[in-house]
Amino acid sequence: MSHSYAIEEQVAVAAVRRACHLTSSVFNRLVKNETLTKGDKSPVTVGDYAAQAVISSILHHAFPGDPIVGEEDASDLRAEEGRVLKDRIIELANEALTAELGLGDSTTWGIGPGQEKSAEELLDAIDRGNHPGGREGRMWTIDPIDGTKGFLRGEQYAVCLSLIVDAKVQLGVIGCPNLPVDPSAPENGTGCIFTAVRGHGAQQLTLNGSNPTPLVIPQTTPETLNFLESVEAAHSSHSFNDRISSILNITRPSTRMDSQAKYCCLARGEGGAYLRMPTGVGYREKIWDHAPGQVLVEEAGGVVTDSRGEPLDFGLGRTLGENFGVIAAGKGAHSRVLAAVQEALNETKAKV
Ligand SMILES: Nc1ncnc2c1ncn2[C@@H]1O[C@H](COP(=O)(O)OS(=O)(=O)O)[C@@H](OP(=O)(O)O)[C@H]1O
Ligand SMILES: [Mg+2]
Ligand SMILES: [Mg+2]
Ligand SMILES: [Mg+2]
């Protein structure tokens, strides 16, 4: 790790590891009243809040001046009705911050087992994720549980962290506790961390931070390519993906998977293309849902654009602005998918 973000990468991997430890251990103990429905009708669990508290606390210790754009905020927990939930979140966050995780633990940078924190300190840590984003300076993005619906189903979800500098993603770290380490031998166990630093490649580690394996997206043909797509039809258009599959003579059915685990699978050669077209409800994509995935796929040799072929703009604030969808794929596949997407969009326009 001899690049200029070596310390950031070490801290980010350690923070994601601690958060993954928390989310996988809370899953089996989750009870009914530990999930809330947010204003936009999406779920949030004690795991999401506690994982954001853990990551934000570790970042604050190592880089106190860095702003954070985090998905969750603590306002529902500060209200009297949120007290039971809050107590549980504080307990979980402190468990994760003080746990002995072995390999990779270190007393430097505050990433090793630390001291317990007060409720106020942890709520403040969650709320430090309120930065509005923007075009200038350093900022971190945290999605403490991406794919909360997948997490609740016991399927794929991801703990996602990125460092953006002057609107460019420089570092991405994604933890996937339920993803098989070796896709060709899923029975050999799950739990991976993916990490990428701009200009320095992408790699997969085990959940304990060992066995770094470089990632390079292989070439694909219509027979070996298929789409990775969201599970929820409301999050991206399944029918549009089917149309593109038929234009490109793709014969393998799409793989549905929650979270940025889709970007991780793409980066290690599973699938071949991630296509996420808007469903037309005016939803704006959030930067924390794409920033680490973008640098990971680009560093594995792939390309990430919107449906116009433009790069995603991480300098617009907490969202990516007007939603033109996302196309991520290896280099050759990306140009074929982009051409097919534009053909399909033109057909639709011609019909109106
Ligand atoms: N309407 C709409 N359109 C597009 N995207 C939306 C929408 N609503 C929510 N979200 C965001 O989708 C994130 C999960 O995306 P996924 O690809 O994992 O979806 S799915 O779980 O596979 O269905 C999910 O991330 P998490 O909240 O972290 O789970 C949301 O940020
Ligand atoms: Mg959410
Ligand atoms: Mg998300
Ligand atoms: Mg989330």
From TrEMBL:
Short name of one Pfam family: Inositol_P
InterPro entries: DPNP, Inositol_monoP_metal-BS, Inositol_monoP_superfamily, Inositol_monophosphatase-like
Catalytically driven reaction(s): adenosine 3',5'-bisphosphate + H2O = AMP + phosphate; adenosine 2',5'-bisphosphate + H2O = AMP + phosphate; 3'-phosphoadenylyl sulfate + H2O = adenosine 5'-phosphosulfate + phosphate
NCBIfam families: bisphos_HAL2
UniProt name for this protein: 3'(2'),5'-bisphosphate nucleotidase
GO biological process, one term: sulfate assimilation
Root EC class: hydrolase
Co-factor(s): Mg(2+)
Similarity section: Belongs to the inositol monophosphatase superfamily.
Residue sites binding Mg(2+) per the record: 71, 143, 145-146, 289
Record key words, sorted: Hydrolase, Magnesium, Metal-binding
EC number(s) recorded for this UniProt protein: 3.1.3.7
Gene Ontology MF terms: 3'(2'),5'-bisphosphate nucleotidase activity; metal ion binding
